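Case 213 in the screening queue. Each case pairs one protein sequence with one candidate compound; here the compound is D-xylitol-5-phosphate. For every case the pipeline is the same: read the inputs, emit a complex structure as tokens, and attach any notable structural observations.

Predict complex for case 213.
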Amino acid sequence: MLVAPSILSANFGKLDEEIRAVCDDGCDLVHVDVMDGHFVPNLTIGPVVVQAAAHASSKPLDIHLMVENNTFFIELFAPIKPKYLSFHIEEERHPHRLIQKIRSYGISPAIVLNPHSSLKTIEYILEELDMALLMSVNPGFGGQSFIRSSLKKVEKLRKMIDGAGLKTLIEVDGGVNSENARDLKNAGADILVAGSYIFGSSSYKNAIDSLRA
Ligand code: DX5
Ligand code: ZN
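Case 213 output:
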């Protein structure tokens, strides 16, 4: 199981220190939430801060776009060279084209599904994706409660991926903590994103270890 702390719940007054701490404490990726105030009712950070985060991080970045104009934001963040760049299926008319665009930058493309979105929407492009990110809360804010039906969705996606013999990774984001990590693992998740659970813990290391176990 890979663990990706979401810096949305970090202390932005000492962001570099926070990022170094989770990297030293054994996380695998650093999850960065980019929100534009349109696709979701919240506004976060742009390329200047994400570039600073990339400098502080010894682990690859996992950028989660929650924006209306995917093409614009992909072009904006590609020079930072994250490992993953993910966009929401609900906001994209031409996801297949965007996947190729992300790959052309040497970045791994990923698609995000909101809790209501059907797996059918990515069925025919799954083989093009390095990762599929299933939201287990409504995007926009940290600290929300895990939506239990996400477990079924993870199981179903696991079957789709394994059935087709693909290597696409399954990432889950929202309300992840030590209580649901095991269920998520059993359902077939590969990467767990956690914001408030990790950054709200007195020991980031214990929190990361508990998600992995
Ligand atoms: C929500 C973001 C998440 C968020 C998760 O829109 O995509 O990455 O930071 O926060 P927690 O783990 O607190 O639910
Ligand atoms: Zn996220």
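Case 213 observations:
- DSSP finds eight helices and eight strands in the chain.
- Strands lie at 2-5, 30-35, 61-66, 84-88, 108-113, 131-135, 169-173, 191-194.
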